[in-house]
Write a structure and sequence with these properties.
- The N and C termini lie far apart (about 70 Å).
- Helix content is about 30%, strand content about 25%.
- The chain is built from 15 helices and 24 strands.
- The strands form 5 sheets. Strands 5-4-6-7-3-8-9-10-11 form a 9-stranded mixed β-sheet, with helices on both faces. Strands 16-15-17-18-14-19-20-21-22 form a 9-stranded mixed β-sheet, sandwiched between helices. The chain has a two-stranded antiparallel ribbon with strand order 1-2.
- With about 500 residues, the protein is an alpha/beta fold.
- A hairpin with an 8-residue loop joins strand 9 and strand 10.
- It is elongated, with a radius of gyration of 29 Å.
- The protein has 2 domains: about 220 residues, 3-Layer(aba) Sandwich (Rossmann fold), CATH 3.40.50; about 220 residues, 3-Layer(aba) Sandwich (Rossmann fold), CATH 3.40.50.300.
Length: about 500
């Protein structure tokens, strides 16, 4: 056998043969559960019809087979196992060999109808003793509720089942319909309670998972988005639900330039490595082009860069940059620049965040542009968490060591946007404000550094021009006040030393 030298021989870095933890193999779910289920635990999964209970339990079951466990799947529904398996065959985790070798399907429906809960429990006990499964699913628990004559009888059944699977070290999932706010005795007796649900917002529907109770696990609280794909369930823990890691002390002397001498001078030499900068301004003012200059400067130095946008396709973006002398095509071709485009489709913000952070880590990027943080807001099912989401995402990007440029839209006309609509700028180290100014019956672009936490900067308001030769900054404006608000107190006049043509 050839051994990979990269594998550690340190026992502390190897998984224990039996550490009492039962992983699910479902992307993101083990993070929500604090690592997985406890071996021998009894867990209740509730959800309305079509929520994904059967797919989730089957997906975990096939994963446990791959881990070497014997799996027992007991149904309390009249539906045949052949029909159940035919639905699962379309999913990538399905394995015919597992069905014949390590996964046993048993119907308990007739025993429940004939002998009640005691007969059903006897069937479970006999099957576990003969097959010795390490993981079990009981599908259709609603039938058990209906066949119990009293709550005391159902509680006794759950208590005996819990004691039996614990002694047999057989981790067990019970699948039941959603009970709403109505209490059931099994809620207090099981080791964990997980709810699968759907959430409506306008015309959109999103799937959510919430762990209401989980003994012996420090799980992530609250609701988390999940979707059902050909690979089964994929869950996306809320990015703000887990604590951020400690970050290294930034080196304020290490700066990254935009490759745009006049603008770099305004920033005192560039932005601090690992910092986040927001370019705020109305549509068409030059936010995207300025951010692309930042990526071009990095690519020319051989750095890895990532562009993550919502509005312009890669082809259109590259052509737009080329029209003003910003060459990105060669950087895209040789992999120095990766372009991720997400048009207006129904993706959850946590799904987008996972893709963004993974893109940065995979490419080991040192520079990142997120063009249009409003795209995250438009993807949010629950907009009330958007501020916390952006704050957590900023921390994740700092942990990845990437220097980030965000662009944020503000109204084209009227007063500056109210604080409620400008979100990203409030939690970033640097803010660059870009706006149109009316002078002599014409519109001019202006740019100013509003905030730079880690160093001195030029606080003057400069004029920005864009032409086929690129981006240019000149002295700009003299005399007027109130330019940032869009309402100067006197008519603005261009500096006499400003050589730029009106653009």
């Amino acid at each position: 056998m050839i051994q990979d030298d990269n594998l550690s021989s340190d026992p502390s870095r190897q998984p224990a043969a039996n550490d009492g933890n039962v992983t699910t193999g479902v992307t993101g779910l083990d993070d929500i559960l604090g690592g997985g289920f406890v071996e021998g635990g009894l867990y209740l999964i509730e959800g309305m019809a079509g929520a994904g209970k059967t797919i989730l339990s089957s997906q975990i079951g096939f994963h446990r087979v791959n881990q070497g466990d014997m799996v027992l799947y007991i149904t309390l529904i009249a539906e045949s196992h052949t029909k159940l398996l035919s639905h699962l065959r379309a999913l990538s985790f399905y394995n015919d060999d597992a069905i014949s070798d390590r996964m046993l399907f048993v119907s308990g429906y007739h025993e429940l109808m004939r002998d009640g809960l005691s007969g059903f429990l006897a069937l479970i006990a006999a099957t576990i003793k003969t097959s010795r499964p390490r993981f079990m699913v009981i599908d259709g628990f609603r039938s058990a509720r209906e066949f119990s004559s009293t709550e005391l009888e159902l509680s006794q059944f759950i208590h005996e089942l819990s004691a039996f699977v614990s002694a047999a070290r057989c981790t067990t999932l019970i699948l039941a319909p959603l009970s709403g706010n109505e209490p059931h005795p099994e809620h207090t007796l099981v080791d964990g309670l997980i709810e699968l649900n759907r959430y409506n917002t306008g015309m959109r529907r999103a799937r959510e998972i919430e762990v209401h109770k989980l003994r012996a696990r420090d799980h992530l609280l609250g609701k988390h988005f999940f979707k059902i794909t050909e690979d089964g369930l994929v869950t996306f823990p809320r990015i703000e639900s887990s604590a951020a890691r400690e970050q290294d002390m930034p080196d304020f002397s290490s700066r990254l330039s935009f490759g745009f001498a006049d603008f770099d001078q305004m920033l005192g030499g560039g932005v601090v490595r690992g910092s986040t900068t927001t370019l705020v301004g109305p549509s068409g003012v030059g936010k995207t082009l300025l951010s692309l200059k930042f990526l071009q400067a990095g690519a020319e130095r051989g750095e890895r860069c990532v562009y993550f946008g919502f509005y312009e396709s890669p082809e259109r973006l590259i052509a737009k940059a080329q029209s003003v002398g910003i060459d990105l095509a060669s950087a895209v071709q040789d992999g120095r620049l990766t372009v991720h485009w997400h048009p207006a489709v129904e993706l959850a913000i946590d799904e987008l965040a996972v893709e963004l952070v993974n893109a940065v880590r995979r490419s080991k990027a040192s520079r990142l542009v997120v063009d249009g943080v409003d795209g995250f807001l438009q993807s949010a099912n629950r907009t009330e968490r958007f501020g916390l989401f952006l704050n957590a995402l900023s921390h994740r990007l700092r942990e990845a060591g990437v220097t980030t440029i965000l662009t944020e839209e503000m109204p084209l006309f009227g007063d500056a946007a109210p604080p409620a609509t400008l979100r990203a700028s409030a939690m970033t180290e640097n803010i660059v404000f870009m706006r149109y100014v009316e002078a002599n019956s014409s519109l001019y672009r202006m740019v100013s550094i509003v905030k730079q936490r880690e160093g001195a900067h030029d606080s003057s308001i400069r004029r920005l021009t864009i032409d086929a030769r690129g981006l240019h900054i000149s002295e700009g404006f003299i005399g007027p006040t109130g330019l940032l608000s869009g309402h100067p107190s006197i008519a603005p006049a261009l500096s006499v030393s400003d050589p730029g043509a009106r653009q």
